[in-house]
Write a structure and sequence with these properties.
Low-confidence stretches: none
Distance between the termini: 26 Å
CATH class of the largest domain: Alpha Beta
Helix content: 10-25%
Number of strands: 8
Structural class: alpha/beta
CATH architecture of the largest domain: 2-Layer Sandwich
CATH topology of the largest domain: Signal recognition particle alu RNA binding heterodimer, srp9/1
Mean pLDDT: 91
């Protein structure tokens, strides 16, 4: 059994998930929009283009998402999606593509070396998704338990 990440967006689900697929090498598997629901009473408030459900395969993981009508949207909190790039160059590429020029919150961290990783960062992207990037490099050995 593997967990599935499910993200909610404020009307920009398709844009965000397509961006994530491009940056992270994922594959979009399906998109169901509000307009695809034949029963008008079952549609979300907010318009035909809202995404009801979208799926992306990312490695062995599935990331699913949907738009949330503005009146129900809540800012994500209490978690971060953690990605472990396999090289410093990949770390830098992913960070530039996801973090862009977003301003860091007090509990976030610009890319830096830590005692456990050659490069680590915590940020929230322009779509509101909280991320952690962790490139262990030569520090990945850790201390035996």
């Amino acid at each position: 059994m593997e967990p599935t990440i499910y993200l909610f967006f404020k009307g920009n689900c398709f844009e965000a998930m397509t961006h994530y697929a491009e940056v992270l090498g994922g594959q979009i598997n399906g998109v169901f929009r509000n307009r695809d629901i034949p029963d008008m009473e079952s549609r979300m408030p907010g318009g035909d283009d809202l995404v009801m459900n979208m799926a992306m395969t990312l490695g062995r993981a599935t990331v699913m998402a949907s738009d949330s009508p503005e009146m129900y949207y809540e800012k994500p909190q209490g978690f971060r999606i953690s990605i472990s790039p396999t090289s410093r160059a990949e770390f830098d590429r992913i960070h530039a593509a996801l973090a862009g020029s977003t301003e860091l919150a007090p509990d976030e961290m610009a890319p830096a070396e830590t005692f456990w990783a050659e490069r680590f960062a915590m940020f929230t992207d322009t779509y509101g998704t909280p991320w952690m990037l962790n490139f262990e490099g030569n520090k990945g050995q850790g201390t035996p338990a």
